[in-house]
Amino acid sequence: MRIDIITIFPDYFAPLELSLIGKARAAGILDVHLHDLRSWTYDRHNTVDDTPYGGGPGMVMKPEPWGEALDAVVAAGAAALGRPDAVPTLVLPAPSGVPFTQARAGDLAAEPWLLFACGRYEGIDSRVAEEAAERMPVMELSIGDYVLAGGESATLVMVETVSRLLPGVLGNTDSVTQDSFAPGEMENLLEGPVYTKPSVWRGREVPPVLLSGNHGAVDRWRRDQALRKTARNRPELLERIPADRLDRHDQEVLEGVRLQAGPESMAD
């Protein structure tokens, strides 16, 4: 997968040299290119922002450097891919975007080329996305209901989430299927507690079922723990699970959590 990132802070992305993503880049699984937006400014101050039309606080990123940057990066990427007509999927991190979920990460992981545009201040002039949408897919995505100083942090989150879904990035592909929010049997359930050696640490023992060698019992225990954690931390996720996906034992586990927490806590 090719990933291009346009930002006024290229150094922000040094973490992409580390850990699994760094290894994926070294192995050629992930091809990341960073671009400084100020390279497409021509005044002495390398200005990328201006006051908003209509008044109001803050500054808005100017369309001219963004337009030129997108033109140049798309052309260079298409040439590198050997496909003059190739275009990326443009991702705009923004608190006003649609939620970035594990499922959406899976969709992006299936794309051959992603281009992230990291806005700052009050955002990028809206005409940039409108114009780009005429020649490439555009997605405005939000990583949560809060406001960051810029799109760089959100881009790091999305790049890491997408990259670990690419074949060859994780040493054990089962890790992906057992994640919280991963599609499949445990979909919409949070991952439960995990343990490793030693079996006793500071007087705390690993749950005996995990040492039993009974795979069926282990699977049941893990599902029970996932149900309990989801009910406590994210009860709204349980509403997304079809009734026929919860067996009688599941229902008993959830009822136990409700009795412990009280109806008011479960409703919050």
TrEMBL record:
Binding site for S-adenosyl-L-methionine: 119, 143-148
Catalytic activity: guanosine(37) in tRNA + S-adenosyl-L-methionine = N(1)-methylguanosine(37) in tRNA + S-adenosyl-L-homocysteine + H(+)
Main location class: cytoplasm
Alphabetically ordered keywords of this record: Cytoplasm, Methyltransferase, S-adenosyl-L-methionine, Transferase, tRNA processing
tRNA methyltransferase TRMD/TRM10-type domain span: 1-239
UniProt key word Manganese: no
Compartments (UniProt record): Cytoplasm
GO aspect biological process, one term: tRNA N1-guanine methylation
EC number of the protein: 2.1.1.228
Cellular component, GO annotation: cytosol
SUPFAM superfamilies linked: alpha/beta knot
Database matches in InterPro entries: Alpha/beta_knot_MTases (IPR029028), tRNA_m1G_MeTrfase_C_sf (IPR023148), tRNA_m1G_MeTrfase_TrmD (IPR002649), tRNA_m1G_MTases_N (IPR029026), tRNA_MeTrfase_TRMD/TRM10 (IPR016009)
Gene Ontology molecular function terms on file: tRNA (guanine(37)-N1)-methyltransferase activity
Function description: Specifically methylates guanosine-37 in various tRNAs.
Entry similarity comment: Belongs to the RNA methyltransferase TrmD family.
Assembly, per entry: Homodimer.
Protein name: tRNA (guanine-N(1)-)-methyltransferase
